[in-house]
Amino acid sequence: MCSRVAVRSMKTDSIWLDGLASVRNIAHGTEGVVTATFTFKDGSGREASVVPGNRILYIEGRFGRTQKLDLGSLTRIDFE
Questions:
Q1: DSSP H helical ranges for 1-80
Q2: Domain coordinates of the chain in residue numbers?
Q3: Across the chain, what does the average pLDDT equal?
């Protein structure tokens, strides 16, 4: 998520943020790995393990200020 556009999973593929509807079932794994279920706007979903260095989500907050959310500190994220 640190790339601001995609989540790098432990596999070679990425999960693009622009198609996400929610992230649920967030669980902490070994050595900083976070596993979660990613649900997409088209209704499909998949479980993926996020690499330790890519688990920060940058969001634009009030007044244009960027905030950082650590996926490992959350239990669920819903996007509008």
A1: none
A2: 6-74
A3: 85
